[in-house]
Design a protein that fits this description.
about 270 residues; mainly alpha; Four Helix Bundle (Hemerythrin (Met), subunit A); elongated; disordered C terminus
Length: about 270
């Protein structure tokens, strides 16, 4: 028994315990309201409207417990379950007001006809139509919630990740921390502006392709210069080779001319 009361203090347990009311309870209530309208029984209509009211207003504690249990359930979920949990929470927070309107309309359908009996059937019919609509909304919300922990229900890929995160238990604490945080110094502000400026100067795709093209042109010019340098080196070696051959031929010519010179100098 103590374990049961301990579970009642756990928001995730209470969320699972109460979440059938806005869907299953509402389904029974609208079916009962439809039957009451068919048989035109005012007492049955009042009972059905009371059930619609209970089912509609029960969405408030279900959402409240779900918000309180969000962080704990997310820490126990796998990556796909986290995405489904974010989707489940987003749907519930955006569409919870349909349940409030339905509950208010059900109350009006029970009270207003006491003084204006002619409004009984129109109010009950309007409540029935809105009840079926809200029932579809509740099914759409609970569809995402069923994928959080039940992998066997995941017949499709998870929804895209949402940028904003829900931290329902720590929102006030984060706000207070931000309020009491020290102001940014001018030096830090200037540094952050420089970082943003450097980030803005980062080349985009067109500039990056232009830079790559310039690099290719520079590489081609470098290869042409290297080829010209090798050509000049080969020409220089040819010139050195031809210059070395000329001195070797010069002594032989002088040696052949020397005896002739001596013979001319011999007296007759």
């Amino acid at each position: 028994m103590n374990i049961f009361f301990k579970h009642l203090s756990d928001p995730e347990y209470m969320h699972v315990l109460l979440n059938p009311l806005p869907v299953d309870g509402l389904a029974i209530a609208v079916i009962g309201l439809a039957l009451a309208l068919i048989f035109r029984s005012r007492p049955a209509i009042i009972i059905a409207l009371a059930l619609v009211f209970i089912s509609g207003i029960s969405a408030w504690p279900v959402l409240s417990y779900g918000q309180a249990a969000y962080d704990r359930v997310k820490s126990m979920s796998d990556p796909a379950g986290e995405q489904w949990l974010d989707e489940h929470m987003a749907r519930g927070e955006k569409l919870i007001y349909a349940f409030y309107v339905l509950a208010g309309l059900a109350i009006a359908g029970m009270i207003v006809p006491i003084k204006r009996p002619r409004t009984a059937t129109p109010l009950a019919t309007t409540t029935l139509v809105l009840g079926f609509t809200t029932l579809g909304i509740g099914g759409w919300i609970s569809y995402a919630g069923g994928h959080v922990r039940h992998k066997e229900f995941r017949f499709e890929s998870p929804p895209p990740s949402r940028v904003e995160e829900h931290h329902h238990g720590d929102e006030q604490h984060a706000a207070d921390s931000h309020q009491h945080a020290p102001e940014e110094s001018p030096a830090e502000s200037a540094q952050s502006q420089m970082e943003h400026a450097d980030h803005d100067k980062t080349p985009n795709g067109a500039e990056q392709s232009k830079t790559d093209e310039e690099k290719k042109q520079l590489e081609a010019s470098r290869l042409q210069l290297e080829a010209s340098r090798l050509q000049l080196e080969a020409s220089r070696k040819q010139l050195e080779a031809s210059g070395g051959a000329s001195p070797s031929a010069s002594p032989s010519a002088s040696s052949s001319a020397s005896p002739q010179h001596k013979h001319d100098e011999h007296p007759h």
